[in-house]
Amino acid sequence: MFAVRNCRFFITFTNLKVTTRNPENVFSLGLWQRSLSIQQYENPAGNNDMPIKMDNPYKEPPKTCILCGVTVDYKNIQLLSQFVSPHTGRIYGRHITGLCGKKQKEVSKAIKRAHHMGFMPVTLKEPAFLKDPNVCDIKYPE
Amino acid sequence: LSHAKYNLTSSLFFQLETAAALRRTVETLMGKGAVVRSLENMGEKTLPYKISKHNLRHTRGGYFLVDFSASPTIIPSMLDHLERDIDVIRPTILKKLPQKTQEECPGLVPPDHEGKSFSKRK
């Protein structure tokens, strides 16, 4: 009964038991009764003030990887070289590139194809592309 | 076209006598019944790594892209012919896949741990 005043649940519970008209209890009783009535209230006039159902207008667009909407081609070695280590020429993993599954696979396949067809060097990164902007999240560059 | 079901792209690079070699390649293709749609020159560049072919070590080459339609039966013989050509350093014949529409990308979907393939028990 001590901190009961601040707890809504306990207020309703105590109100059911209250019979005596203490000044404290009268106040809480009135609030509870009013809130009940508001819930059951329906506007007879007809103008609907209830919230309209719509999907979240503040919804963020779905997070995409950086290659979303970009075609990956084995001939475009500049793009492919961005996902390759500059020191060893190894292809970076998914946790480094941050690409989605599909795109990572496409890039990987394209790089291997470019290696085999003689478009892209294997053990290093093409020197002309070393100054390209870094896209990958490398913590400790190998 | 009745026989042509594939769109094939062949990338190969030549030594420095390109015109005659190109002509030979395209003529062989047409002789085997392929329809050559386009021939692109991707420039003459230093090779990404030195390639040894036909008893020679190559450092520079011209890249060419031949876009053609053909029936799949001629591909092995075509590849064999290209391998035997002294001027061709590295022939490749790839099937040209239909361009996928890019709008289907769902974006980065968080992994579904309650899927059927992943059982939390065991």
UniProtKB/TrEMBL annotation, chain B:
One of its GO terms (cellular component) is mitochondrial small ribosomal subunit. Keywords: Ribonucleoprotein, Ribosomal protein. GO terms for molecular function: small ribosomal subunit rRNA binding; structural constituent of ribosome. It comes from the Eukaryota. Residues 100-122 are annotated as: Disordered. Residues 111-122 have a biased composition (Basic and acidic residues). One of its GO terms (biological process) is translation. Coiled coil: none annotated. It holds the Pfam family Ribosomal_S6. SUPFAM superfamilies: Ribosomal protein S6. CDD domains: bS6_mito. Belongs to the bacterial ribosomal protein bS6 family. This is Small ribosomal subunit protein bS6m.
